[in-house]
Amino acid sequence: MYYLKLIFKNVFRAKLRTTLTVTGLVVAIVAFGLLQTVVDAWFAGANSASSARLVTRNAISLVFPMPLYYRERMRSVEGVKLVSYSQWFGGIYKEPSNFFPQFAIDHNTYFDLYPEFLMKPEELLAFQRDRQGAIVGRKLADQFGWKVGDVIPIRGTIYSGNWQFTVRAIFDGKDESTLTRQFFIRWDYINEEVKKRFPRRADQIGVFNILISDPSRAADVSRAIDAEFKNSLAETLTETEKAFQLGFVAQSEAIVVAIRIVSFVVIFIIMAVVANTMAMTARERIAEYATLKALGFSPGYVAALIFGEAMVLAFIGAGIGILLTFPLAKGFASSPAGAAFASFAVSEATVWMQVAAAVVVGTIAAIVPGWRSARVKIVDGLRHVG
Amino acid sequence: MKIPFSYIFRNLWTRKLTTILTAAGMGLVVFVFSAVLMLDAGLKKTMVGTGSLDNVLAIRTGSETEIQSGITRDQAGLLGAMPQVARSKSGDPMVSKESLVLISLTKSGQEKGSNVVARGVSPMGITLRPQVKLIEGRMFRPGSSELVVGRNINREFNGAEIGQSLRFAQRDWVIVGVFDGGGSAFDSEIWGDVEQLMQAFRRLNYSSVIMQLAQQDSFESLLKEIAAEVRLTLDVKREQIFYEDQSRALSTFISILGNVLTVIFSIGAIIGAAITMYSSVAMRTAEIGTLRALGFRRPSILVAFLGESLLLGLVGGLAGLFFASFLQAITISTLNFQSFSQLAFSFTLTPKIVVQTLVFSMFMGFVGGFLPAMRAARMKIVDSLRAA
Amino acid sequence: MGNTLVEIKNLVKTYTRGDQEVPVLRDITLSIDRGDFISLMGPSGSGKSTLLNLIAGIDKPTAGILRIDGEDISRLSEGQLADWRASNIGFIFQFYNLMPVLTAYENVELPLLLTNLSKAERKERIEMTLNMVGLSDRMDHYPNELSGGQQQRVAIARAIVTDPTILVCDEPTGDLDKQSASDVLGMLKQLNQELGKTIIMVTHDVHAAEAAKRIVHLEKGELLGEVTSP
């Protein structure tokens, strides 16, 4: 149709301006997509959590431990299938900036709870046979170039001293959402050392990881576990793994909110740029629009021409931007800064939000120029010729 | 010959919509830019204000934070006996032995708990922090299960009013006062009697020991003395440095995120400025020809258009700064990754940030306007006149 | 009424500039017959273009009567007026006002898009019209590939392709060289004589004005007098 033809031809009339505007749009849409992905990454831990698993921690706060013997009592709670445990180790590998989570775990049961960590059975067996062994996630191993058999020195902060662990297994994630940036060591080995050096801190557990037989009864089971330890020295707080992970996100909510706000600011910026382009375009073409109106075309048609042009601009920019988001996100994920995120993948929702952003930018940008051009008096518009 | 400023200004004024849109784009970028700087400045101010230069803080070697540290009573006693440590009028060492625990409280409007520092302090601990002032209620009585809460805790968390009590470690702790930490990290803490807290949590070791130096310059000799004593396996830092280090990760995170965003966003704004200036040049081709014919030289034309673009940047910069200055009323409370506890800090506008921001906005105007201004200056007189 | 097409009685047009009222047309009375060819002449600011714009329905009078073909067009809404222009008025401008992104063929097709004609019918008409103005071989050229005279002929084709009642021409030769100008005037004369089109033309060029049957002079918003050519 003529309408579309006019729009497309008009879009490419001022090549320099169109190129600049589209470039701006691409940058904005990419930035928007990446920021949304950063927010998603923040929630990655919670999203990969299973609803069949509970986490029990000390009710006061996570830094307080619970005695190991709680395990036996938890096992006896109805609905509990398996109880394993882990302890935050918090060591430093060479530099504090090399941060990655380290957990001392029960080597016999922990991986029964986490079937999404895939590893060779013989490697797991090797870990179970070596008290100083370690199991490392694929992303982490790739980041530092570790292989099975490497000895990793870790400087303790909570458990002071220099520790050494031998990589016995490297695990892969079942799918994209599985986090593979953790470092697992054996709790029994740490505990033995602690016993020698700080006897009072021995036999203490950071969190219990619990598998339940019926996920729909998670709330009941949680309550039953906490009731078991009511009024004891270490009261417990049990919640689903997802709620536990979301608790971390909530603590840094201000940052998530800031990133969200900023990701919308970038859309406003580009809205101003595109609106400016449309305003200038419309001003330059006032005579043409007046001629169309003199010929009998309605003001709405003129406005639709401007609207269509803004939309085409927005969609070209968004299209290129969306296509570029994927390789850039991948590049970022493999950079040192991106490695800090457990998972960094562009979600489908993000792409749809980018499309929505393009629609909003195109629409808003066309409002004022479209309205002005539709309303301009033919006589005044024609006077702009030449 | 110089082209008058009014010519530059009026050209922007005639095309109000375009000028406003372009300046708005730049203003938003400037807003983000200055907000990040202000946040970082606020964080630094909070952390620096927490520590005093006269005070020295000791934690166990390698433990990095107070939470992970442990200092025995014997070690604490040795520290108090050091000759470099100041004495009070009554002759007691100016030393506070402290114990830190994290307790989980819920912020108003949230369901999930956030970690809050509960600090047990010696009676001397309050004297050592002159910036801490009671603003409501009274101080906790030594030997009792009483607590005083920082200003931000009182404001942001549920159940932190005077008269309410917190239950942890099998005891009910009554809140008897609210203190103002003068914008320091203490505003996000809860204080109580160190011996009571340690008893309740069955702890034997302190987390840290704070000492006041008798003389500011005796820090080096104190360091030497401690290093020489085999029983003291401690990391000793000036209190101010310690707290600065505590927020390093958060500060780095804010500045990296901020810088990346600023670079990306400014590309958008520069493009906006370039579009505006290119169109300004195109629309005024005949005018440029006329000016040249009148005897204005190429550099004058270049300066006129660059001036227009710089002015555009300045307008955007001032607008962005104006709106960013309102952020000073906002306090942000978030997790400090290093100490694993909540930390509240405000956006802080400093003269340095004002200068940085304005320079940045003019820079955007300069970069965006340079190529269009070059195009204007390079036009041939005859060609541009013909466009009339 | 008989043969009167345009009936103007006591027409007044005043512009408001700032807080000042500027009278452009004061009390104009004029009638134009069907099949007439009339030139409006006068110095700039005389109101001749304003009068033309009023007749063409792209501007509205402040007071007075303006009937075209018996219809009081000052009462039409903006939308109705647009439809009315599409079917009754053909425009020819000084600077042609062609769409630079459309070919000669497409420019002529533009007004036909507002009719119900099928694509084939449109094609037939466009080709016939372009043939009439002598541009059959330039159909696929863009305006910037055509000379001024050729562009104005495309504009004439665009004006007549819908077979309007009135052709409205605002300085149609103002931007043309002598030869092209006389070609365009010849074409207008031909349209008037052979197809009976009513033409209203504004010009300040005496030579151009002489192509018309009637010449009406305006000054300071008032009619001065009229010359009728033989």
Strand and helix map with partners:
The complex is a heterotrimer of chains A (386), B (388) and C (230).
Chain A: H1 2-11, H2 15-42, H3 44-47, E1 53-58, E2 66-67, H4 70-75, E3 80-88, E4 102-105, H5 110-113, E5 117-118, H6 121-129, E6 133-137, H7 138-144, E7 151-156, E8 161-173, E9 183-186, H8 187-197, E10 204-205, E11 207-212, H9 218-228, E12 236-240, H10 241-251, H11 253-284, H12 286-294, H13 299-334, H14 336-339, H15 348-375, H16 378-382
Parallel strand pairs in A: 4-9, 6-8
Antiparallel strand pairs in A: 1-11, 1-12, 2-10, 3-4, 3-11, 5-8, 6-9, 7-8
Helix pairs in contact in A: 1-13, 2-11, 2-13, 2-15, 11-13, 11-15, 13-15
Chain B: H1 5-14, H2 16-50, E1 55-60, H3 73-80, E2 95-106, E3 113-121, H4 123-128, E4 133-137, E5 146-150, H5 151-156, E6 165-168, E7 171-180, E8 189-193, H6 194-200, E9 208-212, H7 219-228, E10 234-238, H8 239-246, H9 248-283, H10 285-294, H11 298-325, E11 331-336, E12 341-346, H12 351-378, H13 381-386
Parallel strand pairs in B: 3-8, 5-7
Antiparallel strand pairs in B: 1-9, 1-10, 2-3, 2-9, 4-7, 5-8, 6-7, 11-12
Chain C: E1 4-17, E2 20-33, E3 37-41, H1 48-56, E4 63-68, E5 71-72, H2 78-88, E6 89-92, H3 104-109, H4 119-132, H5 148-160, E7 166-170, H6 178-194, E8 198-202, H7 206-209, E9 214-219, E10 222-228
Parallel strand pairs in C: 3-8, 3-9, 6-7, 7-8
Antiparallel strand pairs in C: 1-2, 1-4, 4-5, 9-10
